[in-house]
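=== Structural record ===
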Amino acid sequence: MCGIICSLRAGCQGDTDNIHGEPARPDDTFRDLSERLKVVNAARGPDAQGSHHIHIQGTCQCDSGGAQASSPSGACGLDVEFFASELRLRGDTPIVQPHQQGGDVFCWNGEVFEGLDVNADENDGMKLFQSIRSLFTMDDLPSLLGKIEGPYAFVYYHAESRKLYFARDPLGRRSLLIHRPSVSNPHFLLASVSIGNDQVCIMEELSTEVMFCLDIGRLCESNEVVQNFDSCLACIPRYSDQQSLPFAKLSRVNIGLPPDAPPSILSLDSTILPRDLAIAVDHLIEHLDRSVMLRVQNIPRRTSLELGRAHVAVLFSGGIDSTILAFLAHKYHDFALYCNTSSSLSFSRHVPLDEPIDLLNVAFENPRKIQLQTDGNTGAISKREKKRQLKASERNAAAKESTSYMVPDRVTGLQEVEELRRLCHGRTWNFVEVDVPYEESQAARTAVEATMFPGRTVMDLSLAMALYFASKGVGKIRASAVSDDSQPYTSPARVLLNGLGSDELLGGYGRHRTAYTTRGWQGVIDELQLELDRIPTRNLGRDDRVISSNGKETRHPFLSLTVVSFLAGLPVHLKLDPRLELGVGDKMLLRLATRKVGLLEASVRKKRAMQFGSHSARMEAGDGERRGDLMIRAASEQ
């Protein structure tokens, strides 16, 4: 995980700002912007930060008449700065970015999990840099990237052609924002995270549909950055029909309609499943198990003091998605586990057994919810009854304090960690209760709004708040399952597993059931394709910016492009069955898989949105009816 910045602005080294002839400095506004961007992007990579400057020589218009002339010193042109911070999660050797060699510059924010041979002691960014440099031509870059799987955003400057290449992975699992030059702000910027809603840089999410190439040499010669920027920026297709690139694009949802009356299971306890469904269950376990393995193995230990400490955590609600990820992180890569066998198995754990796994469970003190739970709906009761309830609430103030954090996700989390403890012998599960007082959440709001930008809706904020505090991992753990005694605890884990993607791929939302009711199986297929199409533009960039601001990295096993391809290719009726009740038919395939590995309680839990399960949404009186797609007001406007 890294924070990366690339800035480009017109500059003339022949300009001077003092009598000693020293080079002119950037104007105060741009210099201040640059420093602020470095601060927020450095937070993503606390292990190391570095920068590299280059000056692209061009023609000069510095003479008094404004006529174009060649600068004898080669001083006029474009100033380009690369900045990168490093969160070291791959390889044994400390790395300082940007990577540089032969004039080429590479800023890498990503992880290569498949498609490139990277040993446990090697850094994937360095390996990829050498692979790019060894290409016969830069036209082969899409082919190289189309063969690797993992989340990424990158910036690559190719010195020979004076071209800048940049892109995100096809799912957009890593953030990269772009500011295009304008008359009022004539600089070009790429950054992992912005400084928020600020007029000096109007940042927007970079599209994942294509790769981009900026011809800096041509732009430099034009002497007009703003006017000629668009003509110097090219979109590069990720793939062509003549190439077989497994990770160049998202797979399409299987459009085959099921038979008129596809076989239906009676319950999750069905001992005999239709053959195709039974095979799909086994394959889902296999694919998801491998995806988890690739994301939790070989995380470097920075010091010997880290032995026996958690290196992996799960954003944990006690729901089906987070629970099966936690279970697979504990278990081992041996498919015989899921088969009927009594033989003794030899195995190696994905996460070593002597390492705890932290389960991060966040709960918010929500004044509106507390009032409703304590007082009920007071809008239709008499004044006398209101006074009586007010006195009662004052007497029960202490009780409210102790119960305000027993939100739905806390209740299910406490229940589910006990199931994990029963099944996963020898593992220490740290159930981290992250309690967020109302005052603390409000104090963090301005920073969270800036970090999640350009996300600006009510739903963006409620989800971002939950992720921000959960990923900090500051809370408490109980001395035992039955004890109320607890001790402060801050999770040292830097890799956080996230269950995002299962609802979109497996039909976990209520709208999938509605689609079936209104348009049958064809409606479900269309809705699943729409879900897949909009994943890159909805949550992932925002979530990456928020979680990474705490120096943590989120990894999404369900969103491995290998897992996505497998699930997209399955016939729709093997993934969900809207004819069955909630808790059975929604995400049916995952429920059957979860049940097969022994997670009986988790397999029947119903879908609950994170912002409602944690009570991070609708905190104020009157917020109950606010739609999630409404634009937020800045904290200063409240």
The two ends are 35 Å apart (CA to CA). The chain has two domains: 2-11+26-60+76-237, 275-375+404-614. Residues 13-24, 63-75, 333-347 have pLDDT under 50 and may be disordered.
